[in-house]
Amino acid sequence: MTSNVSGRKNVICLSDTAHKIINILYKDRDSNLETEKLRIVLTAADIIKEDIQKMAYDHTTYPATNYMKSGGENLIPNTLATFTPRLRRNCVAINHAIISAVRPKSFLSPLQIGLALTLHRFYGSKHLINIVFSMGACASYYEASVYINALINAGSPNVSEEAFIQHIFDNADVNVRTLDGLNTVHEMGEYGVLCQLLALKPM
């Protein structure tokens, strides 16, 4: 009996020996179903891990803000994208967490960076961001800080000529304890960043 497998050397053995090997294989598989389940799961995990490692990711530049909103589904290999929906729907964030766990130094998840920036914007807590990062749900505080510095050093934003940018100014007089006990604090502030960001053209 001859076994032909593409890319491997041919295996020749007696037909009786081949029958015995096949019978032993199926007998062991039927007698221990839980072991067979674990073998299948481990095989699937190895296949998914291999496909993740074969993916080409660009980690030299940060993703644009509009790309963070799109979800980055094109960064997920087909095997992982096929496997996780069988467990739960809308699990792009779970897929990104798995890819980040497999390739922590060569994969920049737009979802995880976007979540880290959101936490930084609303709470400004390094400790909170690093806790969520340790759970594998977002980027680290260091990564968020580097991203913010990259935005600052990127230069002026590309604003459309038809955009409407509104600047709001206001002042405040505050009576506080001063050294002489007589003076007050007069402050003037400007707020126009949010309006300007809403008027930006997509990158």
From TrEMBL:
Protein name: Uncharacterized protein
